[in-house]
Design brief:
globular, 234 residues, alpha+beta, 6-stranded antiparallel beta sheet, disordered N terminus, 7 helices, 28% strand
Length: 234
């Protein structure tokens, strides 16, 4: 009898504690829970800059406007030829370059990270959106925690320390986060500037493009901080 009573008490305590923990922690399912579009800052023929709140900070994104237009006036200025008229092939080629270059490494790495964690992020990070280094650093510093870092002089065991869904950052000698990419299932996904996304099996192949990189850092989302923000915002 006493044994049965003790078991009942333990089960009740475990149930009660589980409920308390679920009430004290909120799960992020969409970036709309921690961000909100505030204002349009600037509109150009093919891009719009938008101010967005992110937790308690404000960031900026730049989004490509569709349909993409060929800026004939700009091209004539660049070529210093007021009579320049592009061929259809030239016009389409430039539009294609603009579409490929709209998203940079920071936006792509975040998009893939949130997708892996089943967090809806397409409203902010997609193939049309680029963000500055300053915005990326604000997001990482306020939303992520560093799980590991290594000197790039020792490249042999990087992969042994990686979990699927890792956000990776290269930090240059000026201490800037000068490149971000993503790792999953043995593949590094890296978008270098305006070029197309590439897949690498070895991180050293990405280092070749970023020679000014003494430190590589691994990040994951700071779930406690995000959860506290969600609770306080209720």
């Amino acid at each position: 009898m006493r044994g049965s009573l003790l078991t009942f008490v333990i089960v009740c305590l475990l149930f009660f504690n589980t409920r308390l923990m679920s009430q004290d922690k909120m799960e992020l399912q969409s970036l709309s829970q921690i961000s909100e579009f505030v204002d349009t800052l600037n509109v150009k023929p093919n891009h719009v800059r938008i101010s967005v709140t992110w937790l308690s900070d404000t960031i900026e994104i730049r989004s490509l406007i569709h349909p993409v237009k060929y800026n004939l006036e700009l091209m004539r200025k660049l070529k210093k030829d007021s009579t320049f008229t592009p061929t259809i092939e030239e016009e389409e080629r430039l539009k294609s370059i603009m579409k490929t270059g709209a998203q940079n490494c920071y936006s792509n790495a975040l998009q893939r990270y949130f997708k892996f964690n089943k967090i809806e992020a397409e409203m902010l990070f997609n193939e049309d959106v680029g963000i500055t280094r300053k915005t990326f650093e604000t997001i990482v510093n306020n939303t992520f925690i560093k799980t590991n870092q290594f000197s790039t002089k020792n490249k042999k065991h990087f992969k042994d320390q990686l979990d699927d869904g890792t956000l990776i950052v290269f930090r240059n000698k000026s201490n800037w986060m000068n490149h971000a990419f993503y790792y999953e299932n043995g593949v590094f996904y890296s978008k270098n500037g305006a070029s197309m996304l590439k897949e690498y099996s070895k991180m050293k192949d990405i280092f070749k493009k970023y020679w000014d990189t003494p430190i590589v850092e691994f990040y994951e989302m700071n779930e406690n901080k995000v959860s506290n923000f969600l609770i306080e915002s209720k």
